[in-house]
Structure formats: C-alpha cells, structure tokens
Design goal:
With 291 residues, the chain is of the alpha/beta class. It is built from nine helices and 14 strands. The strands form three sheets. The chain has a seven-stranded mixed beta sheet, sandwiched between helices. The chain has a four-stranded antiparallel beta sheet with strand order 2-3-1-4. The longest helix has 13 residues. 40% of the residues are buried.
Amino acid sequence: MKKESIQYQVGFKLSLLPSIRCRALSFLEACGYSLSSLVEEEGREVRSLSIYEADKASADRIYKIFKGFKAAGVSIFRCVHRESDWSSRWKKCWKPFSLTRRFHVIPLWQEVRVCPARKIPVYLDTTNAFGTGLHETTRFTAQVIESLTGKFSSFLDVGTGSGILAIVALKCGAKKCVGFDIDPSAVRVARQNLRANQLTCQLTACDVKDFKPVKLFDLVAANLVSFDLIQFRDRILSFVQPGGYLVISGVSLKNIVRVKKAFAQAGVYPVRLVQGREWAAIVFHPDVIRD
C-alpha cells in the first residue's frame, strides 16, 4: 500500500478585521508568496491564512519568515496533516456562488449541482480557496474577461492556478487557449477542471521566463503578485498580440501606483481599473500607448 504523504501547515490566525487580513496578505505578497499558494479559512471569530509544504525544512523556513509579521490580533501556528485531511478541510465552507454576471461556480464535490436560470455553470475543484474565484483578484479578472467577450479569440492564462480563468475565457468564445503555472500540481488540477467542463486548453508547468509561445494572444491574463508583475513586465507584454488586451491582477491597493508606474515606463497605460476593498485589476490595450 502506498504511504500517504504528509503536509506541513504554517499560518497566521487573524481577527476578522479586514484591515488585519489586508496587512497579512500584503506582507506575504512582499515576501514573494503567490495568492494561489495560500489557503484561507474563516471561522466565527478568527480566520487563517496558511501555506502547506511537503517537507519540514521548507515549513521551518516559512515559519521564520512568518515570525517577521508583527500586528495586534495575529498569531502564528504550525501543524502536521495527512494529505487526505488538509486537501479537503477548507472545502466544507465552500458553496456555489456567482462569479460574474453570467457565470456561477459549482464545486465538483457537490452532490446536487443546480445552476440558477440564465447562468453558465463553471464546475471546479481545487486545493486552495484562492483558485476558486472567492478571492477579489480572480473575480475581477473573470469580470474583465467576460466584458471583453467578442473582442478576443485567443487567450493566455499566466499563472493558471485552478484553470478557472481559462474556463471563463473559453466559455466567452476563445477558440485558442493556453495556460501555464510554475506549480505542476496546479496544472494537474487545472486539467481536471477543464475536462469537467468539457473544454480543452493547452497547459504546461513552467516559469514566466521559460514560456515560449508559438503565436501571440488577443487577451492575456496575469494574476500574479505585484513583485512578479513588475519583474516580468516586459516578458508578459511580449505575449500580447498587437491590438490585444492585457489584464493584470493580484495588485494590492497600496501597490497600484507602483505597478502603474512600472508599466508606464514601458509606454503602456491603463484603460480600465477594477478596484475592490483590498485588491485591484488593471486592463491595458496596445492602442493606448504613448511614445
């Protein structure tokens, strides 16, 4: 019998104040952690933000980093779990919900899969809540993709995670869909989700700097942390077809000016800003470029 793997959990326990959550997420973003690597759980009195690792050394390193975050109402914890436990814990609280005006997310493990009238179902399974559409960054990007229906036929998903944005793009009319993620496990989950929705997308596990497209894309979505968006700005822009669109998300409100300035230095300026309580998505179009 195959031995079940162990997962090491390191996380913050936070008060339910939105400002505390925002500070914690900003801290993790500044440390280089992608939103797709986090698992968020919310109880009656506290919420938690966690990272899971397969080896103890990595978990110990993360624990030391977490200790650098000092704020009232925040504590650090670590636990050890069997894989079958940690991968499904947060799913107990995940219910079907409306992602956008047209799309309704339904967890694959729901026994009864009912979609509201005039809504398009998106069937999804994932290993963490940031890949479900519950997070502002994912919702905003999905909303932008939906609003651009009819203006793109090819779509690139940079940091695909659960594949939810690729699914939305395909259901909005994309004829060609490509996605990649640095995490091989995310790519496996994304492939399963595409199959569950009876859709196809070319997915691969690689880093932004290693991705080599055969052709450019009408619409590119990059839901990454601000640091990566700035670091790989030129690479991400190079994926966009002339006349196409770029949507970047994963930008915390405090980093909007810094990210916009970085893209302005490349001669690219926003045509739309979608802003929430803590995060934002920015839309660029090559037609709005200044020499």
